[in-house]
Amino acid sequence: MTQQRIALVLGATGGIGGEVARALAARGWQVRALHRRPDALARRDARFEWRQGDAMRRADVLAAAEGAALIVHAVNPPGYRDWDKLVLPMIDNSIAAARASGARIVLPGTVYNFGPDAFPILSETSPQRPRTRKGAIRAELEQRLRVAAADGVRALVVRAGDFFGPGAASNWFAGGLVKPGKPLRAVTYPGQAGIGHQWAYVPDVAETMLRLIEQDARLPAFAVYHMRGHWDADGKTMIDAVRRASGRADLRVRAFAWWLLPLLAPFSTLLREVREMRYLWQQPLRMDNAALVQMLGEEPHTDWDDAVSSTLKSLHCLQQA
After folding, report:
1. Measured between alpha carbons, how far is residue 278 from residues 115, 192, 234 in Å?
2. Largest CA distance in the chain
3. Please, which residues bridge with residue 188 across strands?
4. pTM higher than 0.85, yes or no?
5. Contact (CB, 8 A) for 7 and 68
6. Regions of the chain with pLDDT less than 70
7. The predicted structure's pLDDT at residue 319
8. Predicted confidence (pLDDT) per residue in 35-50, tens digit
9. Selection from 272, 258, 280, 285 nearest residue 83 by Cα
10. Radius of gyration (Cα) for the chain, nearest Å?
11. How is domain 6-163+198-230 classified at the CATH fold level?
12. Which residues form the NAD-dependent epimerase/dehydratase domain (predicted)?
């Protein structure tokens, strides 16, 4: 990279955005964090240069990205609200800023852009035929990056499974399996017995992104990699790790009340969107990380027990363990 080691992070107060921003700062990068009201934040990382602005305003993103070598696009509408109105305009603004500054865009990818026809093994080139609204938006988001890469805007997409980890609050682990701030009484599991599920520990995702960033000269203009993450082959590995972390081998497991969502969905955007993603829990889905291992030699991986324990501690679920 010819630019200074400046990284603009959109979504620095979120789980993955914050983790990537802290990892960049620890490696000596100058981190700029764009936020609509930074002065109102209860806690601000003093290592970041906070810039007031909105990812929906192109002028704000362009100004914040001046001189940057990286734009970490980790911003998402909270609670899945207004995805159709916000997600694509925000990536367009990041593309415009990357074009002006020469930065590479780094995007945390998901499995939403794949339909069941691509399961059970997902590679970077698996067909993207999503059946859901969010999946279509995510597929279009990546397509815009791919088109921009053909016109000189470099991008790196790291796709991973369901996020969990310290600071990651908007995910299935914190919003479904456990109740943040409350001692563990039971685990609510959305999947079926014997069905595998793909998880991704946020610190591992951030470390993977950083190691790929450090290989920038070797990356293609549009680089995509899959993480194997924490693969739960039968739906029991995550539950057993929660039991060990809590010290309660007899911790009860409840089934997620999918049947209730059709009744509540008309009154809740979040529940309406959650219902749409049920297919990800009804059949196994595993991500092939061969390309990632070939590039890095290995995939960063935290032990199951350490990852789950740190997540539960950050959610304040182990007070009485």
Report:
1. 12, 11, 17
2. 57
3. 254
4. yes
5. yes
6. 1-3, 78-80, 265, 267-270, 319-321
7. 65
8. 988 888 878 888 999 9
9. 272
10. 19
11. Rossmann fold (3.40.50)
12. 7-219
